[in-house]
Amino acid sequence: MKAAAALALVALAARALAALALPASVEDLARSSDAVVRGTVLAARSRWTADRLRIVTAVELQVAIAWRGAAPARVEVLVPGGVVGDLGQRVDGMATFAPGEEVVAFLVRPGPARGSAGSSSSGAWRVAGGAQGKFTVSGSRARPDLARTTFLEAPLAPGERRAEEMPIAELERRVRAAR
Amino acid sequence: MSGAPRLALALALLAGGSARAYVRTTTASNDPRHGACLYWPQAGFTYRVNASGFTGAGCAGAADAASLLRASFAPWMQASRGGAACSGFHFADGGDTQVTALGNDGVNLVVLRRGLCSSFAAADPDCAVGASPEAENRCIAAHDCWSHGTGAIIALTTATFRVETGEIVDADTELHAWNADARNPTGWYFTCAGAGSGICPTPPYGSASCIYIDVGTTMTHEAGHMLGLDHVCAYSGTTCDSSSVMFPNTSPGKVVRALGADDVAGVCDIYPAGGAPSASAGCLGQPAPPSSSGCSSGGAAGGLAVLALAALALRRRRSRPWSPRVRGDA
């Protein structure tokens, strides 16, 4: 029941208003990530920043396997946007996560903890490539949520494939093979 | 998406008005059939422009870029059908600003960012990768920088709204402008040249009087999103008019600053001239709360739309998650 309520809460999260982006290849995303993991979303908790300007969501991800790089068994991923109380906020083109969701995420390692007090979220991983850097796994396929992104038509490197719905086996192969 | 839910969605869309292909953004995640539709209850808002981050020869300076940003709101206000003005939406120009902060601060900001926030990290620890969101906010405010990563995103809008009603309370649009460094470029080369000008060479840095990433095309599209419109054809069952400003693809050298028929229908249905904004017009999401005005464009056929949506809801438990058609193939 708790998970369902949390899922509903995140599902209500601020849909906002679209980004204009360059299409990234899976290989681009892999090269720009410190780790690419497949796992399950355990929880997603939103909060206002201390200045009450932005809402951010801390996503707890249970890592089943790292396809590339290294990551602990549980990672915290910080994404912009979310819902707190009666207000929602969404940043276009960014990844969103729902509790219970099985995902593949292209992650950037957190830097050293910086900033002054109130930086309880420092040290969290970030998603590389925005919405293109997170795939939802459903059966044998994986798909990024790109409906809210406008793409600039641009060629990719030969042999590379853009971040789009594909068999998960292919996604894994491309991630592991990216140089 | 399995066949029956896709058919149900198509029926729902057709019942809502077969001539309409616009899609309204809702509060629900990636599904225009759920949640409240986003809109401005006052049928307008005041925006402020900070173009001080503009660099390059693609426009005749920051003022030229700012002027074109402003001009990009006009098509939405001047929309007409059958020769008669039909849009009641008003973008009020609040003037130039030095405000750089992002978020729910009561300033609806249109800003050209220059430079990655991380590039300031050596001098300002608030700008380091992985800094806390509070530190990131301070970095953005101090340096007017781009905080959304190094790669793919060219422009985006952050919106704050009431989850129950879909009322938008704040919206900021950021454009990731070129950092004026041709050897280590970040950001995008924005230009102001109109249709008929040639496409800038690649790389475009320093080029003038050509088109690369058009300021007007970018901002006219983002302004549609700020109104509460989603992409056309981003979801299975929606039609796909490539002449629409809300089409989800663009390309270097493209200039689309005039509204297509679907765009006009969207702004005029939601914000009719002389009428109150409608939380429900063209909305595939949950029924509007009783205090909202306007009615579904489907009229009597709206009943069919409700039945189709109910049938879809009953099937959701056993069907695969509905997945939008991904557009944007090169």
Architecture overview:
- The complex is a heterodimer of chains A (179) and B (330).
- Chain A has 179 residues and is mainly β.
- Helices cover 15% and strands 40% of the residues of chain A.
- At the A-B interface, β1, β6 and β11 of A face α4, β6, α5 and β10 of B.
- β1 (19-21) of chain A pairs antiparallel with β6 of chain B, so a sheet runs across the interface.
Short descriptors:
heterodimer, A: 179 residues, mainly beta, eight-stranded antiparallel sheet, two-stranded parallel sheet, 3 helices, 12 strands, disordered N terminus, B: 330 residues, alpha/beta, five-stranded mixed sheet, two-stranded antiparallel ribbon, 7 helices, 23% helix, 15% strand, disordered C terminus
> Strand-residue fraction of chain A?
35-45%
Q: Which parts of chain A are unreliable, with pLDDT below 50 for 5 consecutive residues or more? A: 1-16, 113-121
* Multimeric organization: heterodimer
Tell me about the biggest sheet of chain B? 5 strands, mixed
Helix content of chain B: 10-25%
H/E element order of chain B: HEHHEEEEHEEEEHEHH
Distance between the termini of chain A: 44 Å
Structural class label of chain B: alpha/beta
Mean pLDDT of chain B: 80
Average predicted confidence as pLDDT of chain A: 84
